[in-house]
Design brief:
Blueprint lengths: L5 H31 L19 H12 L3 H14 L5 H22 L4 H27 L1
Helix pairs in contact: 1-2, 1-4, 3-5, 4-5
């Protein structure tokens, strides 16, 4: 059972990979359009200069890709600690799968409809699930 905690971790990595593909599938054509309009892409080489340059539908996908390297890194760390300590149980598995599912839905919403309040709710719900994992693990390790 212990290795089962790695399944949602792997799914998160796959989600990140697909968001990277989606990002470049939208960004490369948008970059070519900018070049055709006479924009020198070298002038946009720093991320701070990219804001508002690409269409929103392109930026949303890139933003989501970047977000997958923020909060989910804590999920990865907690999951690997659970795995390393051989503490996987149904509670952690349920939380890990819920976390992945919420982040998947969050990615889809951010990259497509970008409904801010829905996205925010999903973000907070994913933090709640992650917090449950963190605090339970802390209790199990420290007490």
């Amino acid at each position: 059972m212990n290795n089962e905690i790695l399944e949602p971790v792997i799914c998160m990595a796959i989600l990140t990979f697909f968001m990277m593909i989606w990002m470049y599938a939208t960004r490369i054509p948008a970059s070519k359009t900018l070049e055709d309009q006479g924009v020198n892409l070298e002038d946009l080489s720093h991320p701070s200069k990219l804001g508002g340059v690409f269409p929103s539908k392109v930026e949303r996908v890139a933003d989501n890709y970047n977000h997958l390297f923020e909060q989910p890194t804590v999920f990865y760390a907690i999951s690997f600690i659970i795995w390393a300590l051989n503490m996987t149980d149904s509670f952690y598995l349920t939380c890990a799968w819920l976390y992945f599912l919420i982040r998947l839905i969050h990615s889809i919403f951010q990259a497509t409809l970008n409904l801010v309040w829905v996205r925010f709710g999903l973000f907070m719900f994913s933090w709640l699930i992650l917090a449950l994992m963190i605090f339970r693990l802390s209790f199990n390790v420290f007490i």
